[in-house]
Amino acid sequence: MIDARDMDLKTAARTVLDRLGADTAALDGGSMASFSPVTGEQIAALAEHSAAEVTAAIDRAAAAFRSWRNVPAPRRGELVRLLGEELRAAKDDLGRLVSIEAGKSPSEGAGEVQEMIDICDFAVGLSRQLYGLTIATERPGHRMMETWHPLGVVGVISAFNFPVAVWSWNTALALVCGNPVVWKPSEKTPLTALACQAILDRAIARFGDAPAALSQVVIGGRETGEALVDDPRVALVSATGSTRMGRQVGPRVAARFGRSILELGGNNAGIVCPSADLDMALRAIAFGAMGTAGQRCTTMRRLFVHDGVYDQLVPRLIKAYGSVSVGNPLTSRALVGPLVDGQAFAAMQAALEAAKAAGGTVHGGARVTDAAPEAAFYVKPALVEMPAQTGPVLEETFAPILYVMRYSDFGSVIEQHNAVGAGLSSSIFTTDLRESEAFLSASGSDCGIANVNIGTSGAEIGGAFGGEKETGGGRESGSDAWKAYMRRATNTINYSRDLPLAQGVVFDI
Ligand code: UN1
Q1: Interface pTM, i.e. ipTM
Q2: Where are the alpha helices (DSSP H) in 291-341?
Q3: Which residue intervals define the domain Aldehyde dehydrogenase in the entry (predicted)?
Q4: Residue 129 neighbours by CB under 8 Å, 6+ apart
Q5: 205: domain CATH number?
Q6: Residues 299 and 208 in one domain
Q7: Which of 128, 204, 231, 235 could potentially form a cystine with 152 if both were Cys, beta carbons 3.0 to 4.6 Å apart?
């Protein structure tokens, strides 16, 4: 285990990368500087891939596709099984690199790698379960079925906040489904991407006969991403990030009839009902709203508390906000680490100002400067009591702000709950069956994830992950999300000596 107290973070990151077998020769001298949010220090300056280099990567991926698609799926699963083994061996190192590059606590860094291991296990099983249906046909002596085939090159665009897990959800599924991957990680987290590539390369070496360029990393900003988005050979673009980014990516991919999985912003809410177990709700809300310094797309950002329990719950929450430990995740046991950068801090402060202007009472939210270098941005999470759902409450601010509102009527709180642009995750705290079932019903939460008596974040990989409306509608990870990575062919086979036409059509020549 690297102890970041003993070395600067640049050296610590390199030590991890070296140990994982990544090429550390070209981490400096490029135009894309990256920083550790833990201290604000620069840890790398990578060269960006030009659009032509991205195209060359897609050329190689397209060549890999031509052979990988013919490898039997269970054999493809073997590669993902090996990736899972390599990830288990690299868990501490990769988790630590996630902490250095994204500022997560060690437990959350390790948790993210565990999520990668879990999706590998899931995908290995899936490699023997890429089932198609057999469908009743109206014609005698015929059989109808569907077959799922590999789709093509998958482009992955990921965000800083889950710098490795999101790649693994996409890559584990893409590989078993017969597709190569080209990955553009966030400009803020390129080193964890190089680490993942090195880990996958180890699995590929053990696998033996995989085609070259099954998974490649392209480094860069907007232009690099655009080259991926616009290339017609990239059959599927799976993009995680802001709704603003998705508004650009979605139509561009659609314009060339490509497929996209969009996993965009969330404005996730919890509802605390009169019958709720308040101790449980308190803990769930604390993790959901303050965990990962509010930088999960599933972070709880709005909370509706019933009038009857408001005065019991909210003062306790405010106390928890006041006492939560904020600090360097590498050298302390703090639960809340840094914001990713100064821009995130500025956005948080602007949202808090707007909330005050809209009549909100702000608890917390100030910068924590003791023992933190000036270039790092640590904040006390903010709880804001709001008179109504207006202004900044309607938007996602990627920072630890929880807007708390009172409600009295169940029907209207569901309407309020759904009256925002995003539709990712949601939760209700209740022991009343009627309320929980209503929340989960067709006229309840309109989100892709709806939970009862747990928070909005921390989904397991076994379920489909994603949301509706401005969250983009994509689904990744478990359940049948794999279908987006394959193309479906409907096959009708005539094993009779006649040629009856469907719908009773007669065409005798
Ligand atoms: C994200 O923030 O982009 O449900 C993903 C969760 C995690 C994934 C979050 N399993 O919070």
Answers
A1: 0.97
A2: 307-323
A3: 31-488
A4: none
A5: 3.40.605.10
A6: no
A7: 235
Which residue's alpha carbon is at the smallest distance from atom 1 of ligand 1? 297
Whole-structure pTM value: 0.96
Is 496 within the bounds of a domain?
no
In tens, the pLDDT along 373-429 reads: 899 999 999 999 999 999 999 999 999 999 999 999 999 999 999 999 999 999 999
Q: Are residues 244 and 334 in the same domain?
A: no
477 lines ligand 1 (CB under 6 A): no
SS3 assignment, position 129: coil
Mind listing the pLDDT tens digit for each residue in 199-235? 999 999 999 999 999 999 999 999 999 999 999 999 9
Cα-to-centroid distance, 165 and ligand 1 (Å): 9
CB of 297 sitting under 6 A from ligand 1: yes
Evaluate: CB of 296 within 6 angstroms of ligand 1: yes
- Helix, strand, or coil (residue 244): helix
Total domains in the chain come to: 2
101 CA from centroid of ligand 1 (Å): 17
Q: Which residues have a Cβ under 8 Å from the Cβ of 3 and sit 6 or more positions away?
A: none
Whether 43 contacts 36, CB under 8 Å:
yes
Q: Does any ligand 1 atom lie closer than 6 A to the CB of residue 299?
A: no
CA dihedral 266, 288, 98, 229 (to 10 degrees): -10
| Residue 139, domain extent | 4-264+472-489
Ligand 1 atom nearest 298 alpha carbon = 11
